[in-house]
Amino acid sequence: MNIQKFLKKKIKKIYKKYGISNDLDPIIRKNIKNNEIDYQVNGIIRFKKITVFSPYNLAIHISNHMRKLNIYKKISVLPPGFINITLKSTWLNKCINNMYYSKNFNISKKTSKNIVIDYSSPNIAKEMHVGHLRSTILGDVTARVMEFLGHNVIRQNHIGDWGTQFGILITQLQLKSYKSYNNIESIYQKAYLKYQNNPVFKKQAQKNVVKLQKKNQNCLKIWNILVKSTIQKNNEVYKKLNVSLTNNDVRGESFYNGMLPDIISDLKKKKIAIYHEGSIIVPLKKFKNRIGQNMGVVIKKSNGAFLYTTTDIACLKYRCNILKAHKIIYYVDKRQTQHLLQIWEIARKAKYVNINTILEHHSFGMILYKNKKPFKTRHGKVIRLLDLLNTGIHRAEKIIKKKNPQMHDSEIKSVAYDIGIGAIKYFDLSKNRKSDYVFDWNQMLSLDGNTAPYIQYAYTRIQSVIKKNQSYNNLYLYPIKIFTPYERTLVLTILQFEETISQLEKHGTPHLMCNYLYDLSGKFSKFYENCSILFVQEIHIKLSRIKLSMLTARIIKKGLYLLGINTVSKM
Ligand code: ARG
């Protein structure tokens, strides 16, 4: 049940009576500050010019109509034109019981859309590092949420498996043979130095890129080995991170290589691309360079090489024509905003993208170190993602050992995994993705505050409450009912789960789910401190409270699942 949406629909009908046009949706705000008021209708002031009424009078009229629906305990109008709503507890009772008995929390399924989510997408030949964390986990949350809502999610790991870096690597591997490719990163670093300082090497590397593009057998063979071994390593990271990407989702830059010549000739034919000093460019009026001139985006260099942009245009065409995407979401850091706007503009001009197809860039900020500089090792090196995850698990292990000296080693290991990984992911997800944040081990592993361990701990506590009261098997005889203000607040918050998911779906902002779970856990604590379960005599109250606890636990578990975080049974 999405109360916000329900109210919106009802109030919209009333709006119509006053000639307010269909595309002016009622604005319904959840009220967080005042316990007496559940929701507020905002934005009536906007209708000043549309109706003969003053906003205040209009609000009065609207509220009079609203009263005909038997779900409000109190409706009051506040100048200049707000309507405050308090819902009837009997209605909340009805909603919460429906939710309790629904496997899916009574959340309405959407008409299934094809949603392509481009995320993680690291460049191959380098190991995944801290910089890949955000795209990988933010994108994964959206994939889980969309799937939960019934969409057909197409995950795309657009790995950088093509281009100059392979020319460099292939050249190095032709010069020197290596026993294993386990350490591609360091081979690449050495080769890159050569590339920068040795003109002969550089020339050869550039030649190899062209050769690779022309499908030279030897180059292809080396390339294949490099790509396979890096993908394998990345899979280790995904597994550890509990991220739902698999080999089937990999569709990297190389995949589109064969389509590029056709794209170029098509764009030329459509007069979108032109020759310019030996290269082929797409002039774009919307984009200006540093000195204010119209910008031309290069799609083929004078030496015949294609670019990242060219690949992304082909990729967009593929996603629309072949994958039939209704919506494409890119989880790429904010430095690539302009790049994406450009390829979208070009692809739309060329009609590779349907007008109705939605293209979204869910950009995100950087992870910083305490000194507000990019998060690196003490020696200024990038931090391998796998090392970071292992450190998190290790730190969690120490904390758990100290708290539970009697816990078995194997259990400690498994709990430490869920806590460590959960802490890292949650800390990141709980920040608004648009902002940078400072990485802080102590904060993320703390049991206080808006952290994964806090929520995981709340979950184990609720589980033990349920366990203590397990002996009742006639739960179905007694509905959940609101008896005290604590229960009312908890019920209302539980009912706001769907609103939270739909906000998250709309904006790709997992921090809203984190805030919600934190709030829910707090409300449960308040309820539990103030409403006895074990010692209450009346069976109908007792069982209602047990059911409320069970529903809270289910919501927390599902909420964490959507964030890609596991619950634990003990901690
Ligand atoms: N490989 C790119 C990078 O590491 C990210 C790719 C994002 N996806 C895309 N379709 N361009 O910067």
TrEMBL record:
Task: List GO molecular-function terms, semicolon-separated.
Answer: arginine-tRNA ligase activity; ATP binding
List the EC numbers from the record. Answer: 6.1.1.19
SMART domains reported in the protein's UniProt record = Arg_tRNA_synt_N, DALR_1
Q: Which residues form the DALR anticodon binding domain?
A: 455-571
Q: Where does motif 'HIGH' region map?
A: 122-132
Q: Where in the cell is it found?
A: Cytoplasm
Which CDD domains does the protein's record reference? Anticodon_Ia_Arg, ArgRS_core
Q: Which GO terms describe its biological process?
A: arginyl-tRNA aminoacylation
Substrates-to-products reaction catalysed? tRNA(Arg) + L-arginine + ATP = L-arginyl-tRNA(Arg) + AMP + diphosphate
What keyword terms does UniProt attach to this protein?
A: Aminoacyl-tRNA synthetase, ATP-binding, Cytoplasm, Ligase, Nucleotide-binding, Protein biosynthesis
Where does the chain cross the membrane?
none
Describe the location of the Arginyl tRNA synthetase N-terminal domain by residue ranges: 1-87
Entry GO terms, CC: cytoplasm
Q: How does it assemble?
A: Monomer.
Member of which family?
Belongs to the class-I aminoacyl-tRNA synthetase family.
Spell out the PANTHER family in the cross-references: ARGININE--TRNA LIGASE, CYTOPLASMIC (PTHR11956:SF5), ARGINYL-TRNA SYNTHETASE (PTHR11956)
Q: Which NCBIfam families match?
A: argS
Protein name, as recorded: Arginine--tRNA ligase
